[in-house]
Structures are given as structure tokens and as C-alpha cells.
Amino acid sequence: MSKTIKLTKGFDINLKGKAEKKLASNVNSETFAIKPSDFHGILRPKAIVNQGDKVKAGTPIFIDKKNDSIKITAPVSGEIAEIRRGEKRRILEIIILADKDQEYESFKKYSVSELQNLSKQEATETMLTSGVWPNLVQRPFGVIASPEETPKAIHISAFNSHPLAPDYDFLLKGEEQYFQAGVSVLKLFTSGPVNLNINNNAEISNLFSNTNGVTINKISGKHPAGNVGVQIHHIDPINKGDVVWTIDPYGVSQIGKLFLEGKYDASKKIALTGSEVSEPQYYDTYLGANVTSFIQDNLSNDHVRVIAGNVLTGTKIEKDGFVGYFDHQITVLPEGDHAEFLGWILPTTKKLSFHRAFGLLGNSSKEHVVDTNTNGEPRAFVQTGVFEKVTPMDVLPTHLLKAILAEDFDDMEALGIYEVIEEDLALCEFIDVSKHDVQEILREGLDLIQYS
Predict the structure, then answer these.
(1) Is-cis flag, bond preceding 224, omega within 30?
(2) Is 374 left (phi over 0), alpha (psi -120 to 50) or beta?
(3) CB atoms < 10 A from the CB of 385, how many?
(4) 60-76 per-position pLDDT tens digit
(5) Which of 43, 75, 158, 400 could lock 266 by a disulfide, CB 3.0 to 4.6 Å apart?
(6) Is the pLDDT at 349 greater than 70, yes or no?
(7) How far is 211 from 151, CA to CA, in rounded Å?
(8) What are the φ/ψ torsions at residue 392 (nearest 5 degrees)?
(9) How is residue 412 annotated by DSSP?
(10) Does one domain contain both 55 and 154?
(11) pLDDT (average), residues 141-170
């Protein structure tokens, strides 16, 4: 049964630099990379290609030694340029020098009518081999979904409420048939509903309104309303022992394209956003693109931080770094490595503030230019009660984080650790006066629960 949910807690971070809905022409990356660190749950990545090998889009390039059935495949065809390693030879990135004309591994094609007779086993094998399986993320823990599990439901968040988030309608324009095919395949994996959760504050697009076989839920409210974990909490909460799968609309479309076209197509639109970008707009590229060609000669300031993803959950990368597997945007902000006279005490109307502390008179309705300065150093855990004001869930973030730090398993479970992953508490990190790495602490707790 569909639900309409209105959230009253949260906080919208309104930043300058939203991408204009237009595509840049004739700009693309020459190199692409896949990073094992993008995939929670892959503990022992093993490269199954060597430097100099030729690959096609869809060729397996690394596996997890603990579960070699899930294959991470090349997003483009070309030559393996480098396997970059870190401490203890752990794989950091596998870099591919792309061909000008893409070649694809061949998989079986299905007509729309043939999809109705597709078996779960056949769908599983094709998805595991081709490289689309990692789009499926399993809750709790936020890891790649296990093929051996049967989820009680599958959730698709059809909107993104993160700062400067790209527009899914624009990202997936013209992909309606693939999205529908992807939904048809996903229905094979659960006896429960495939939930499509849409923004009740916006007009529903044709991409989602005409989709069959889904339960449409309407969500409204401030960020993190677009987070699928928040949506699950209000639609059908996760209890100990439950398994739920999530996937974003791009992943659904990619699955549909695999079965209809018989190829692993990792092409995607990337939004270049942020106050330091001269022309914030979208780019046609492929998963794992190098950002150099997008930001070159397109920055108003060279002293910047480049983030793969959004400002709350994204990853800092170099100016020649690569977009992550799940990222649909690049964000560029001013680097905040300077000290401010009087800091937060100085009265101003220019700063964005949730606390509205003395002197911080700025509001969240106008677009702000925010740098990366934390305006302070880590200190004792100050209990202010504000975490609960930006967490629209029946979870007590402050107490949960303290339980994790104390490694108290019983309290972690009782306080709702099965319902959250990093993005669900990212706002807590943003407003934390104690400057703690909230997302890092939460991941440590999730790993403790999962692997102990």
C-alpha cells in the first residue's frame, strides 16, 4: 500500500553553483578508474587483469576474494593503464585508458515480452557476470547485496535532496523503457513490493509516473528526505534479521539496458556543481571518469577542493582524480585552510547556520558560498540535542554514536544501528559543534556489528 509521508525534521543546505540543465559539448575523459573503496563489503579485492591488458566494457577487472561471484567490470573498453596500490599492496584504483570507439562484452538480449518469462537464476547470473549487480545495496550495513539473500522489499529513491544534487529527470531523460525493464527484473528478487519513493513537493515526471509494477510512495520535507534509509524507516522499518535492497534510478535503468540491449552500458551524465565552477552544467561521460577535462579552464579560483559526490557524503579527490561508482556529481568548493578573525563571534549575515548562534544571522533561504573550513578542532563530545533535530527517524544519534565509541553491541542494536548508514547521519556531522567524524564513527559501528 502506498504511503504519503511528511517529514518535519531536517535541514536544507542551499549552496551556490547548481548545475544548469544543459549538456556540455565535446568534452570527455581519456581515462577512467574503478576504486574498490567505493564498495562497502569488499574486504579483499583481487585484480584479475594486468597492466597492459585490453578490456571491453563489461570485462571483469577485479573480484572480492571472499565472494568471487560478484564481479566488478570495466566501464569502458581500452587498455589497463595502471593498477595503483597502497599499503600492503591493497588496490586503490584500476585505471583504464579508454578507446575512442567503445567495444562491449556481449550478453543475451531479451525482448520486453521475454522479460516476463525470465527466471530469477538467469537474471542473477547475468547481473553478476556483467557488472550491474553492485548497484544493489543491502540494508542493514549498506554493502553490496548478497545473491543468496531474499529481500523483504526493494526501495528506489526517485529524488536526491543533497546539496546541489543533480536532477534525476534530466539524468535519465529518454530512459523510460530501460527503467521499466529494470523494474521488471528487480521484481524477480522479492516477494514484497518494489517501492518507488518520489518527491511530493515536485511534479512527478513521466519517467516515474508511467512505471508499472511499483508501489509509489510520496515523501516531502527537508533533507534528508531524499535518503532511501529515511524513506524505508517511515514506510517499513528494518528490524534485526530483516534484509532490504536499495538501488538508485540510474542503476535500475542500467539493469534494464543490460537485458534489452545485451551490453553493460556505463554511460552516464555527471553534474559539475559548486560556487567555484564558472559554468555549472552536465557532462556526458562514463562511470569512473577523470575530472580533469571537466574542471580545466572552468574554475573561477584555483585554490579549491574537488569532491567526487556531494558536500555531505562525497570524497575529496585531486584535480586529476576520478568520480566514484555511485556518484552523479562533482562539487568544487573554496578550500577553507584559513583562520577567521573572531570566527563565529563576528556578527554576519553571510554565513549559513543551523544553530543561529550569536553573530550567525544568515538564513538558509538564499544561496550561500561555503568553504571547507571546520571553524574549530575536535573536542569533547558536547551533547546539545541538535542531532535529533536533523534526523527524521526514531533514532537517537548522540546516544547511538556514544554506544559505538563504547563498543556496546546491545545498545547499538537497541538504538537503531540497523536502520542507518553514513548518509543518514551526514547532517549531524555538518552541524556538530564537537567536530567529530560522525560518518566514520558510524561505519566503524556497522563493521563491528557485521563482522564480529
Answers:
(1) yes
(2) alpha
(3) 7
(4) 999 998 888 999 999 99
(5) 75
(6) no
(7) 21
(8) -80, 55
(9) H
(10) no
(11) 96
H/E stretch holding 448 reads helix 438-451
What pLDDT does residue 452 have?
82
Query: Is residue 347 situated within a structural domain?
Result: no
Backbone angles phi, psi at 231, to 5 degrees: -65, -45
Residue 367 has pLDDT above 90, yes or no: no
User: Which runs of consecutive H residues, i.e. helices, occur in 53-212?
Assistant: 112-115, 120-130, 168-171, 176-186, 206-209
**Euclidean distance between CA atoms 63 and 42, whole angstroms:** 8
Tell me what the pLDDT averaged over the chain comes to.
92
Instruction: Identify whether residues 140 and 180 lie together within a single domain.
Output: yes
pLDDT at 377: 75
Give the CA-trace dihedral at 250, 256, 262, 268, to 10 degrees. Answer: -20
Judgement on whether residues 149 and 78 belong to the same structural domain of the protein: no
Give dist(CA 96, CA 77) in Å, integer.
8
Nine cell digits for residue 161: 535532496
Q: Which amino acid would we find at residue 180?
A: Q
User: Residue 312 in contact with residue 163, Cβ under 8 Å?
Assistant: yes
Longest Cα separation, the chain: 68
Amino acid type, 151: P
Place of cell 571491453: 56
Q: Which domain holds residue 199?
A: 106-261
Give the pLDDT band of residue 342 (cuts 50, 70, 90). low
User: Residues 286, 263: contact at Cβ < 8 Å?
Assistant: no
396 by Cβ neighbours in 10 Å (0-12 / 13-18 / 19+) ranks as middle
Give the pLDDT confidence score for residue 171 in this predicted structure: 94
Average the pLDDT over 264-285 and give the result: 96
Question: Are the beta carbons of 357 and 325 closer than 8 angstroms?
Answer: no
Confidence of residue 214 (pLDDT cuts 50, 70, 90): very high
- Number of domains forming the structure of the chain: 3
Interhelix angle for 397-405 vs 438-451, to 10°? Answer: 60
ω into 140 cis (within 30 of 0)? yes
CA dist 337 to 309, 388, 436, Å? Answer: 21, 30, 18
How far apart (Å, rounded) are the C-alpha atoms in residues 92 and 164? Answer: 28
Predicted pLDDT of residue 379:
77
Residue 134: which CATH number? 3.40.50
- Spatial separation of the C-alpha atoms in residues 380 and 387, rounded to whole Å: 16
Whether residues 129 and 203 share a domain: the answer is yes
Q: Which pLDDT does position 23 carry in this prediction?
A: 94
Query: What's the whole-number mean pLDDT along residues 253-262?
Result: 98
230 closest CA partner among 120, 393, 105: 393
Interatomic CA distance for residues 258 and 93, integer angstroms: 25
Q: How confident is the model at residue 380 (pLDDT cuts 50, 70, 90)?
A: confident
